[in-house]
Structures are given as structure tokens and as C-alpha cells.
Amino acid sequence: MAQTFTTRLFDALADEGAGFECDGVRLSFAELGRRATEIAAGLAAAGVSRGDCVASIAASSLDLLAANFAVYSLGGIYVPINTRYRSGEVAHILDHSGAVTAFVDELGAEVLAESGVPMYRTFAVHDPPR
Asked: How many CB atoms are closer than 10 A to CB 94?
């Protein structure tokens, strides 16, 4: 149901022009929808499914927004983690959330490695699975 709703939402807003802007980059609702669909397919191929928690430890970006919608469209649970948290706090959140994978940027990857929490797969937020 989540995937159907997300697809219908982006289809309905496709003619609205630029829907989002971050760091000087503009993205229409249609483009965001396409990115989210591609990322969702990549996550599904990597084994992420309904009910799985997917963390993010990365600065805000349009790619991260698309990843958020991708997780939602699969019926997953998006677990954003503050980029200012250090390894102990990140480990606590990951342990308690049961996240199976994470989207990370360079700093997020370092903090995740320091946390010692094993992830079966991580994705660079600026190179998400497709």
C-alpha cells in the first residue's frame, strides 16, 4: 500500500514544477519520484523489505530525501540519526532500532565504523542503490 500511495502522490504532483531545492539543486516532484523508485528497487534487490529499519547518518540532501521516500515506499521504517551524534549514541540507536542497513555520507561512515555495530550493507547517500 505504501508504494502505491507514494507513486500516486508523485504522479499527482508531477506537473507542479520544481518541488524541492537544496544546496542550489532543484528537483521536481516527478524527478524525486523517479529517484525514489530507483532507490527502492535497489534496496529491495539488496534484501530490504516491509518492516525493515533503514538508518541514515548523513547531512540533508535531495538524495537523502529520495532515500527516505524509497524506504517508505517499501513499507520500511526510516531511522534518521543526528549527524552530530558520536559513535556511542549511534550504536545505541542502531542497536535499539534493529536497522538492517544505513545511508551514510563520509562523516556518517566514520561514525558508523567507530560505533562497532555491524551493518550487512551501507549505501553512500550520494550514490544510492539503483
From this structure: 23
Which residues 6+ apart lie within 8 Å of 112 measured at CB?
A: 57, 90, 102, 104, 119, 122
Residues 53-78: tens digit of each pLDDT: 999 999 988 889 999 999 999 999 99
State the residue for C-alpha cell 530507483: 38
Q: What is the DSSP letter of 14?
A: G
CA 22 to chain centre: 16
| DSSP states of 72-111 | HHTT-EEEE--TT--HHHHHHHHHHHT-SEEEE-HHHHHH
Q: What is the mean pLDDT of residues 107-130?
A: 82
pTM across the whole model: 0.82
> What radius of gyration do the chain's Cα atoms show?
15
For residues 43 and 34, what is the distance between their CA atoms, to the nearest angstrom? 14
Residue 25 CA to residue 117 CA, distance in Å, equals 33
